[in-house]
Request: fold
Amino acid sequence: MTVNPIPAEADWDSAPSVLEGARTLELTPGRCNLPYWLEHVAGGMLRRLSDGTVPDPGPTEAVTTPGPLRDALLDEFCFRHLAEEKATRALSFLVFHAPDGDCLEFFSTQLLDEARHARAFRDHLLRVGVAGRDLAATVEKTAGASSAAVLEPLEEFGLRVLRDSGDFYGGVLVLTVLVEGVLAPAAELSERKWRPLDPAAALVERGANMDEIRHLAVGSSIVRQYLTDRPRERGRLLEIMREGRRLWEGLPMAEVLFRRESLFQEGLAEYGRLVGDYEIWPGRRLIDTGIEERMEAAQRWSQETQDARLAYMHLGEAGR
Reply:
C-alpha cells in the first residue's frame, strides 16, 4: 500500500508558524479535500497527539493555582471557546452554499476543525480545575461580556453576508480576513507566551494554529481564483471587506486584550522562575516584555497577515 508523505503544514515537527504559513502558504480546496483531512489531519496529526507521540506535559502549578496568571488563561480560553463555537455554526452556511464538491468537502472539514478547537479549549479549562458542572457558568461569567462586545457584532456581520444574502464568496472573504486573519496572529502570540508557563495550553494553541494556517491558505485561494475568473466582482467584495474592517476597528478588542495581558503581566512577575531566558521572539526574552509591547506585536502581525492575504486575493486596496 502506498503511503502519502505527510504535508509539512500537517506535521507537528515541520509545520510553519502562523505568521509564516498564513502569509505565504498556497493551498487549494481540491488539495485539502476530505481524503486529505482523513489521512493527514484525523489520521496523522490528531493521532500523533492522542497516542502520546507529541508530548503533553499537562497544566502546570502556575495555572492550576488561583492568581492572575490562571485568570489570564481562563479569560483567553473561555473567549476562544466561544469564538470557535460561533465559527463552527457560521461554517454551516458555507457548506450549504458551497458551489462545488471540493469547497463542500473542505468547509465540512473546517467545520469539524472549529468544533474540535472549541472542545480543546473547553477541555483545557477542565484540566486546570474548572468543575464540569460549573463550566458553562464560568465561560459566561469570564467571557460573556467580551463575546457580546466583540464576537457577536462580527457574527452578525458574517451571518448577514452568508445567511441573509447567501453570498458564498463574500462569506469566505469575511471568514478568511476578519476572523481567521485577525485572530490567528493573536493565537500565535498566545502559543509563544504560554510555552514556558503552561506547555499544555501552548500545545492546544499549536494544534489549532496548524489548522488555521490551512484555513487561511485555502480560503484566500478560493477568493483569488474567483476574482481571477470574475474580475468584475472585485468592487463588490472590496465593499464587503471595507465595511467589515470599519466594523472591526470600532470593536473594543484592544480593551479585551489589555485586560488579559495585564493579568498575564502580573502572573509573569510571580512565576518568572519558570520563564528564565526563554525568548518569545528572537532576541527578546519573554520576562522582559511588557503589556503594550506584546499587544503591539499582535496588532502588527495581524495587520501584516491581513495585508498579505488581501494582496494575494487581488484585494490589496481594502488594506489601505
Observations:
- Strands lie at 279-281, 284-285.
- The radius of gyration is 19 Å.
